[in-house]
Amino acid sequence: MAHFQNLHSWALSPREAVELQRSLRGKVRIEPLGREIGTIAGADISFDKFSSTVYAGIVVLRLPSLEVIEEVGVRSEAQFPYVPGLLSFRETPPLLEAWAKLKCEPDAVMLDGQGIAHPRRVGIASHFGLIVDRPALGCAKSVLVGRYVEPEREPGSWTPLVHQGETVGAALRTKAGVQPVFVSPGHLIDLQGAIALTLRCCKASRVPEPTRLAHLLVNAVRRGERTIDELDRTPRQDSLFD
DNA sequence: GCGACAG
DNA sequence: ATCTTGTCGC
After folding, report:
1. What digits encode the pLDDT tens for the residues A163-215?
2. What confidence score (pLDDT) does residue A3 get?
């Protein structure tokens, strides 16, 4: 069962959340990966319009095969509104509930959002990474802050995402003929590592597999096509051999 | 004051 | 994020 540290309270006002981000900023470590990544988790949440009920899920994949080795999901209540720049205060609590259900311990985690490509350099990937103390990266479908020039058409090509004169991420072409995704290191990984890891997670879609599969999982749970109970008691093939 | 604004 | 079907193209 994957665990995590209680760094702080989640009962905060938006104003207090901003102050907390300022204090967390100095704890974020952007550095080369410390070891090889053999498993990576994708995390995402889904919810009904006009409802505070949220479904959080995590899918763990093995690299380089991209086979799914574990899936967990939870239903929870959002306690914080969506505010640009404060996304982690809305999504992290439910995601941690799901994280706590994991039987395996992923070597890294990919979040649907930004890492340090954030106004105060503490996007959800940085915040989540700090709490679970694992290499974390953000792979977003759009930009929060920063400017970039369109990367070349070839998959794998990228251009720096620059904010206030600092390279905080990259516009990465994961597939020809589609918009780039925005990758940024979150914690315990650097930009080079985040880009390389994201590319290792790409198959046929614009969005890398961890995030894509986590998205499909939480939507299926929200629609009742899959149940949390089913997930709780369906051990993955691999876990039988662990 | 105006425009921007992850999910 | 979510609301929603078909449709154009490889």
Report:
1. 999 999 999 999 999 999 999 999 999 999 999 999 999 999 999 999 999 99
2. 87
pLDDT band at A48 (very low <50, low <70, confident <90, very high): very high
Query: CA-to-CA distance for A198 and A4, rounded, in angstroms?
Result: 24
Quickly give A144 CA vs B4 C1' distance in Å. 9
Domains and CATH numbers, chain A: 14-143+183-233 (3.30.2170.10)
- Whole-number Å distance, CA A241 to C1' C10? 41
Chain C positions with any atom < 7 A from a protein CB: 1-3
Is A112 within any annotated ligand binding site? yes
Distance A71 CA to C6 C1' (A): 33
Residue A18 token pair: 């901003």
Would the CA dihedral through A236, A208, A88, A22 be positive or negative?
Answer: positive
Is residue A182's beta carbon less than 7 angstroms from any atom in nucleic acid strand C? no
Angle at A190 between CA A88 and CA A64, to 5 degrees: 90
